[in-house]
């Protein structure tokens, strides 16, 4: 028999070729009121009385038409007994008689009424709770004058971010600390913040910037630093944390999403102090932009390739390495190819072994003799 379902208020109407058969709820709230119709036997037959399986539909329909069915006919569909649609015939236990569709509908409608009533009570309770909390909110005293506003503020949209940055710039009097990831800085990025930097320089504010080593190759950054003169000091690292801007060690800005269209303005003293400590430790490890990068001490392997080798040894993929070092994936793979050639590796697996043999799988230690596989004499780094 083909069954068809039509949606109904709070449940469904099951129709077959013989016409309407049963109206049911999906689930009732109380045991004893249609509970057996909807909440039993879900492991064997994950449905309620409103969604009978095809076999159950056939057996129940036959039982209604004939008045009873043999117990063996219901063995493949235990759901009918579990949902109380069939029950043993008291005159002959080998037969099962159906619960009348009228009785089923009565129970289900009663369950629907109870469920709607319970929902209305929950809505009423929620409204009362909202009114109570709203009343408490009106009793909160206004913030005292002279405070800096909320400890954490979400800035949604570039316009709000720029406005907050301009406000912090105007209030800044002593120092700005920044971390700028992402490799070579684009001209547009440098020009966007130039007016703030010039205003800070005019007030004698000291600025310290951290970049990745890759940023050294950008002419825009060199031009910017030349324009700012001694007001800005810049250093570089293999990789840095995400963007961070600190004003006077009292307010910090960090990204709040990956595309940087949202930011957090942080004024909580403990959070700001933590970020200052992170910056200072990175600053001590960084290399001044005016100083050359240290030599690796291994012939044919550059400082960048040494960094890539260490990240490869940690198991990172090419795209992750490129992002952390601020280079393109294509450039990263070109360096990996040169590493493989220099170390005499024919595969990525062999490259990992060669990196470990050359001591490139960790931070360099001064004065350690390193023999590059395939070369006759050791190098010192």
Automatic annotation (TrEMBL):
GO annotation terms (biological process): regulation of DNA-templated transcription
Record-linked InterPro entries: Sig_transdc_resp-reg_C-effctor (IPR016032), TrmB-like (IPR051797), Tscrpt_reg_LuxR_C (IPR000792), WH-like_DNA-bd_sf (IPR036388)
GO molecular function, a single term: DNA binding
PROSITE patterns: HTH_LUXR_2
Database matches in Pfam families: GerE (PF00196)
Region (Disordered): 357-381
Protein name (database record): Regulatory protein
Residues in HTH luxR-type domain copies: 294-359
Stored Gene3D superfamilies: Winged helix-like DNA-binding domain superfamily/Winged helix DNA-binding domain
Transmembrane segments: none
SMART domains: HTH_LUXR (SM00421)
Organism expressing this protein natively: Streptomyces viridochromogenes (strain DSM 40736 / JCM 4977 / BCRC 1201 / Tue 494)
């Amino acid at each position: 028999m083909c069954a068809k379902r039509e949606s109904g208020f709070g449940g469904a109407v099951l129709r077959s070729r013989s016409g309407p058969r049963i109206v049911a709820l999906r689930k009732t709230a109380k045991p004893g009121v249609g509970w057996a119709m909807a909440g039993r036997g879900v492991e064997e037959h994950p449905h309620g009385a409103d969604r009978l399986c095809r076999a159950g539909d056939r057996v129940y329909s036959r039982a209604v038409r004939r008045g009873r069915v043999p117990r063996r006919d219901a063995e493949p569909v235990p759901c009918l007994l579990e949902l109380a649609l069939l029950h043993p015939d008291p005159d002959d236990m080998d037969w099962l008689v159906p619960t009348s569709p009228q009785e089923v509908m009565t129970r289900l409608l009663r369950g629907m009424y109870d469920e709607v009533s319970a929902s209305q009570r929950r809505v009423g309770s929620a409204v009362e709770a909202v009114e109570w909390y709203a009343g408490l909110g009106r009793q909160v005293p206004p913030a005292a004058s002279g405070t800096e506003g909320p400890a954490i503020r979400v800035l949604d949209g570039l316009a709000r971010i720029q406005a907050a940055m301009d406000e912090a710039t105007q209030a800044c009097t002593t120092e700005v600390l920044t971390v700028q990831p992402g490799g070579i800085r684009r001209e547009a990025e440098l020009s966007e913040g130039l007016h703030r930097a010039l205003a800070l320089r005019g007030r004698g504010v000291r600025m310290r910037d951290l970049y990745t080593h890759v940023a050294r190759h950008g002419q825009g950054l060199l031009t910017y630093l030349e324009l700012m003169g001694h007001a800005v000091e810049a250093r570089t690292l293999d990789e840095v944390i995400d963007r961070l801007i600190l004003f006077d060690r009292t307010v910090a800005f960090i990204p709040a999403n990956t595309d940087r269209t949202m930011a957090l303005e942080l004024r909580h003293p403990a959070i700001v102090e933590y970020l200052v400590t992170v910056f200072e430790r990175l600053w001590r490890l960084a290399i001044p932009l005016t100083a050359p990068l240290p030599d690796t001490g291994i012939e044919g392997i550059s400082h960048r390739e040494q960094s890539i080798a260490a990240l490869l040894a940690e198991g990172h993929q090419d795209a992750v390495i490129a992002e952390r070092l601020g280079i393109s994936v294509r450039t990263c793979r070109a360096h990996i190819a040169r590493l493989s050639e220099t170390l005499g590796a024919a595969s990525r697996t062999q490259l990992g072994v060669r990196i470990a043999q050359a001591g490139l799988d960790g931070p360099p230690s001064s004065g350690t003799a390193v023999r590059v596989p395939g070369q006759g004499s050791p190098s010192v780094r």
